[in-house]
């Protein structure tokens, strides 16, 4: 709740500073209670804002009243966009620039809300150059343009010479002037601002059209999906007017890629505790992007971490605080060195005064010596020697002090050079941290791609093993069928050989019967001729065959009909056995 209170205070601060609370404080409080869903008593509200000096607002100021009667009652069940729009309405007319801008009022409102998110937690609110660079980079990337680092460095140098950062209205003027979006039309800039607003303020991590399979009708419908840190909402269209449902995310959710089926491609599955959702992306790239985005969101939920943009903002703030502490420490050391230098200068000044005083005393003595030169020649000689010795010692002391002074100045120059090197090292460290963050993100992305590819390779390997096992089983089945057919063929060959032998035996029997018939026919003919010769017209009456004549492969009348039917039944039984 502390973080929520700080976010609310920034927007309220703009409205607070733009209004005359003696006349409009009641209106601001009433609007805040309405948009924040805070219950309030109109009678008590009138009591707090009565015109005499006995009311709490008059005695204690507006902020204690705001904290006690409004902010402490906020539960979080309010529309943040509606709250910010109310505060914007109260302060925009007074502060927004009158000069024409390349962005609309709606875009200016979104930039104002983003400013409140990125600004420092101190009043009056400003946004520091590092956060300005971060915001302009995000907008430039959303427009698909290249970032002009050199241009921003010149702007940053000019800004640092005059102040620490920009106010909300100066930031709106900067973006609306088109200084860092040259060549882009209003619509492109507006879409870029809206994309950054959705990510930083509405916590939209990803959004786009996909197909969703229904739970009841099992039909596929196109929906506009919006991924946030703990929920996926899907709508009829991207205008977000008709919401069709939510997918609640937690640490137990998981995402799985599915093979193409039923004419649908690029499928993946979102598994939750109570439901499973089957989704179809437009292409493989979108499918992989959505899977990675949902997996990252679930990982953050498991770890209890904040959304990526909020965590990055906190890290940037901590880095700035660390660099500021180091800068203050360097300034403290420089102040200590400067104080030590001043002390040395005072010591040298004291020595110089002592030398001047000694020189003055020496001149006085010299004058006295000239005046008493005749009377005190011997004494003067002794004094002169003593003065020479004193002068020599003083010169040695002066030389020593001069040497110490030169060493001290050399040390000061070395410390100044060290201070410059430390500043360069801090800049190098800052760039290295940025490079390290970039490499870390790249490594994380490569690791996720490698994990996905490895899982896909393992899946292919498992499918290949199953296919090999099925092929081996089919091969064994075919081998068994071939053995059975070979056995059946061998039995059929043996039966064929047996039939061949039987046919040969039948032919032999047929030949024997044929010879007997020929002999009998010859005998009958001879007998008939004799009867005809002796008896004239006498003709023998022979009985005819009652059965039809049968012709087989073994000749005519080789078998009777009963024998032939018996053989046919035997052959059919053997054929059925072999098959």
From TrEMBL:
PROSITE patterns hit by this protein: PH_DOMAIN
GO CC terms: cytoplasm; lamellipodium; nucleus; plasma membrane
Molecular function GO labels: DNA binding
Domain PH: 203-299
Superkingdom of the source species: Eukaryota
One Pfam family linked to the record: EF-hand_SWAP70_N
Entry keyword set: Cell membrane, Cell projection, Coiled coil, Cytoplasm, DNA-binding, Membrane, Nucleus, Phosphoprotein
Chain ranges passing through the membrane: none
InterPro entries tied to this protein: EF-hand_SWAP70_N (IPR057836), PH-like_dom_sf (IPR011993), PH_domain (IPR001849), PH_SWAP70 (IPR057837)
Subcellular location per the Swiss-Prot or TrEMBL entry: Cell membrane; Cell projection, Lamellipodium; Cytoplasm; Nucleus
Coiled-coil intervals, chain numbering: 309-530
Subunit structure: The SWAP complex consists of NPM1, NCL, PARP1 and SWAP70.
Function noted in UniProt: Phosphatidylinositol 3,4,5-trisphosphate-dependent guanine nucleotide exchange factor (GEF) which, independently of RAS, transduces signals from tyrosine kinase receptors to RAC. It also mediates signaling of membrane ruffling. Regulates the actin cytoskeleton as an effector or adapter protein in response to agonist stimulated phosphatidylinositol (3,4)-bisphosphate production and cell protrusion.
Protein name per UniProt: Switch-associated protein 70
Organism: Emberiza fucata
Gene name, Swiss-Prot/TrEMBL: Swap70
């Amino acid at each position: 709740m502390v973080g929520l209170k700080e976010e609310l205070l920034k927007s309220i601060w703009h409205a607070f500073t733009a209004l005359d609370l003696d006349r409009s404080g009641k209106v601001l409080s009433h609007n805040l209670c309405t948009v924040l869903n805070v219950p309030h008593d109109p009678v008590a509200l009138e009591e707090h804002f009565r015109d005499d000096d006995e009311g709490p607002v008059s005695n204690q100021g507006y902020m204690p009243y705001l904290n006690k009667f409004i902010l402490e009652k906020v539960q979080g069940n309010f529309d943040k966009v509606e709250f910010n729009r109310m505060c914007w309405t109260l302060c925009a007319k007074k502060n927004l620039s009158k000069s024409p801008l390349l962005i609309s009022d709606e875009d200016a409102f979104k930039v104002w809300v983003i400013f409140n998110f990125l600004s420092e937690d101190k009043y009056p609110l400003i946004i520091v150059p590092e956060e300005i660079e971060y915001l302009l980079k995000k907008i430039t990337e959303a427009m698909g343009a290249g970032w002009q680092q050199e241009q921003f460095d010149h702007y940053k140098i000019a800004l640092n010479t005059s102040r620490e950062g920009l106010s909300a209205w100066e930031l709106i003027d900067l973006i609306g002037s088109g200084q860092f979006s040259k060549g882009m039309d209003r619509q492109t800039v507006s879409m870029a601002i809206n994309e950054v607003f959705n990510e930083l303020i509405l916590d939209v991590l990803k959004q786009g059209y996909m197909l969703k399979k229904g739970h009841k009708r099992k039909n596929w419908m196109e929906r506009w999906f919006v991924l946030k840190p703990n929920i996926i909402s899907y709508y009829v269209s991207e205008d977000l007017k008709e919401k069709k449902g939510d997918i609640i995310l937690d640490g137990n959710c998981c995402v799985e890629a599915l093979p193409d089926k039923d004419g649908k491609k690029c499928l993946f599955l979102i598994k939750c505790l109570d439901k499973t959702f089957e989704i179809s992306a437009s292409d493989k790239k979108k499918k992989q992007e959505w899977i990675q985005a949902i997996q990252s969101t679930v990982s953050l939920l498991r770890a209890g971490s904040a959304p990526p943009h909020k965590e990055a903002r906190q890290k940037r703030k901590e880095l700035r605080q660390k660099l500021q502490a180091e800068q203050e420490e360097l300034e403290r050391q420089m102040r200590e060195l400067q104080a030590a230098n001043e002390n040395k200068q005072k010591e040298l000044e004291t020595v110089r005064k002592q030398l001047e005083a000694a020189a003055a005393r020496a001149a006085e003595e010299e004058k006295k010596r000239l005046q008493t030169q005749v009377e005190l020649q011997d004494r003067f000689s002794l004094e002169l020697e003593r003065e020479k010795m004193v002068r020599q010692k003083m010169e040695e002391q002066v030389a020593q002090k001069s040497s110490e002074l030169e060493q001290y100045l050399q040390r000061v120059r070395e410390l100044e050079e060290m201070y410059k090197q430390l500043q360069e090292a801090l800049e190098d460290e800052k760039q290295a941290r940025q490079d390290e963050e970039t490499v870390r993100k790249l490594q994380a992305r490569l690791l996720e791609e490698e994990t996905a590819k490895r899982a896909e390779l393992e899946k292919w390997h498992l499918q290949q093993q199953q296919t090999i096992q099925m092929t081996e089983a089919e091969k064994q089945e075919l081998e068994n069928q071939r053995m059975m057919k070979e056995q059946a063929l061998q039995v059929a060959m043996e039966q064929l050989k047996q039939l061949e032998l039987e046919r040969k035996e039948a032919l032999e029997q047929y030949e024997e019967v044929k010879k007997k018939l020929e002999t009998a026919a010859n005998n009958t003919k001879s007998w008939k001729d004799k009867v005809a010769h002796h008896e004239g017209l006498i003709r023998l009456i022979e009985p005819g065959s009652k059965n039809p004549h049968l012709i087989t492969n073994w000749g005519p009348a080789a078998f009777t009909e009963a024998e032939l039917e018996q053989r046919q039944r035997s052959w059919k039984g053997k054929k059925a056995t072999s098959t």
